[in-house]
């Protein structure tokens, strides 16, 4: 697994443990991946 996937799974685990809903946007915002994600989407 790549490091980004591991970080995302950690965030999902923390949020589901607290019982709150997690969205892909929240994950990207927490990990500051939003710009990277957009760049990859445009690049591909």
What's the short version?
This protein is mainly alpha-helical and 44 residues long. It has helices at 3-18, 24-31, 34-43.
Number of discrete domains: 1
**Estimated helix fraction:** over 70%
Order of helices and strands: HHH
Biggest sheet, open or closed, and with what strands and sense?
Answer: none
The global form is flat
What is the percentage of strand-forming residues?
A: under 5%
Kindly report the average pLDDT value: 73
Low-confidence stretches: none
Number of strands: 0
What structural category characterises the helix and strand content?
mainly alpha
What is the terminal separation in angstroms? Answer: 21 Å
| Number of continuous helical runs | 3
What Rg, in angstroms, do the CA atoms define?
Answer: 11 Å
Task: Summarize the topology.
Elements: H1 3-18, H2 24-31, H3 34-43
Helix pairs in contact: 1-2
Question: Which key phrases capture this entry?
Answer:
44 residues, mainly alpha, 3 helices, 0% strand
């Amino acid at each position: 697994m790549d490091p980004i996937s591991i970080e995302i799974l950690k965030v999902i685990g923390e949020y589901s443990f607290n019982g709150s809903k997690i969205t892909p946007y929240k994950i990207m915002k927490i990990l500051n991946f939003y710009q990277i994600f957009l760049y990859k989407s445009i690049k591909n």
